[in-house]
UDP-glucose 6-dehydrogenase
Amino acid sequence: MKITIIGTGYVGLVTGACLAELGNDVFCLDLDEKKVAVLNSGGIPIHEPGLAEIVSRNRAIGRLKFSTDIAASVAHGQIQFIAVGTPPDEDGSADLQYVLAAARNIGKYMTDFKVIVDKSTVPVGTADRVSGAIRTELAARLPPSQASDALADEAPQFSVVSNPEFLKEGAAVEDFMRPDRIVIGCDEGGNGPIARALMTQLYAPFNRNHERTYWMDVRSAEFTKYAANAMLATRISFMNELANLADKVGADIEAVRHGIGSDPRIGHSFLYAGCGYGGSCFPKDVQALERTARSYDQELLILRAVEQVNNNQKHVMGNKIVERFGADLSGKHFALWGLAFKPNTDDMREASSRVLLAELLGRGASVAVHDPVAMSEARRVLDLDFSKTPELLERLRFCDSQMDALQDADALAIVTEWKTYRSPDFNEVRTFLKAPVIFDGRNLYEPAVMNEIGFEYYGIGRSVLA
Ligand code: NAD
């Protein structure tokens, strides 16, 4: 099938590459000329396991193209996926300017029937706004004498479908190729049935083993994506809040996690306490759902707390360090392992490391950081974070090896649970550090073992009374 993907970020690039891998003829549009140039020269602008091979294989056989040509992108695909960003607006609601610009471009250039698929995470009701934007552009192309009723007969037809994406960064290719579920919201009337038939054909390879597609109305599909992210964020904040209490009462949140996760009604997933969730999705989607509710005069009390708990949790590591070393950290030196918001990605959006770095550098400490893949993205993002206080960055050192970052540090802080940090040679760690102190923001190690081998160890919610 001929497919156009608008936006080649984490979602668009993975969607385009994976659909090409299945035999479709895919045209990827992005307005970022640098990104398109990188892709056309055989590079990949993001770190995502397995993606480079698929992109290069499908580019080589001509099934995957990258371009900035809007008219050509609209002409190419009968199905047009909108996969552009929906960052938070100033008030926390989803900023739809990129989605609506993409929709207007489709309306401006389309000459035949199109299915427009909202793959971006968008608030309930956005499909109607996308339809409206396309209709306005189509109307603008007609001579003024032919008013809106002519639009229905003569203008090219279309249908807007909601198909939210559930992939996880770091496992995006695997998630896309072997999805738990595919959610598609489609109109029952008008051109909806034609859109449904085309989407059925496109996703047929994913449903061979068993049916994974959940068909529903458009608004429910839009809502499903927010509900899923809100639920996952809630589980994390719930555990983080309990972990902070566990620290006070002298219980081990890891033991509690096993104890409750074994109940099948609760399950083991997403119950890890830590130093807060980040990324491009949970923080903004929780906020956007709260904003949607508020615009309908409803307060989502649980989600407000989820957000508040998470914002506080990003300071828990800093607080523990201050408790141990005092509020004035000048002259102190720390090692920081992990910058990305989670392992297997270079994504730094809303990463907890940024909050901890602001705190440590702001209190006068110097910091040596390491991350297996996010170093160059971190340099870019931290330059922006510290644009008003660039002198603080003089006390930040980027290290190519995790052991190098430990040199002469008063303590090690771990923020991202990369595999390479899970079982380091602790003798070596102790040799490099000035003092054997570890603040573990992801509960990678066992407190009792760490104490036994001579480390002063601080986890999250793991202060068991001896
Ligand atoms: P991203 O910021 O990585 O990529 C968006 C891309 O769209 C950029 O390359 C940008 O240049 C391009 N773009 C913007 N306007 C454009 C236009 N009019 N025409 C063509 N290209 C345009 O974003 P992302 O992380 O891929 O997220 C995209 C959407 O998917 C968001 O709504 C996000 O919430 C959702 N989502 C993201 C993830 C994730 O893990 N990143 C998972 C599920 C859903």
Notes: The first helix runs from residue 10 to 21.
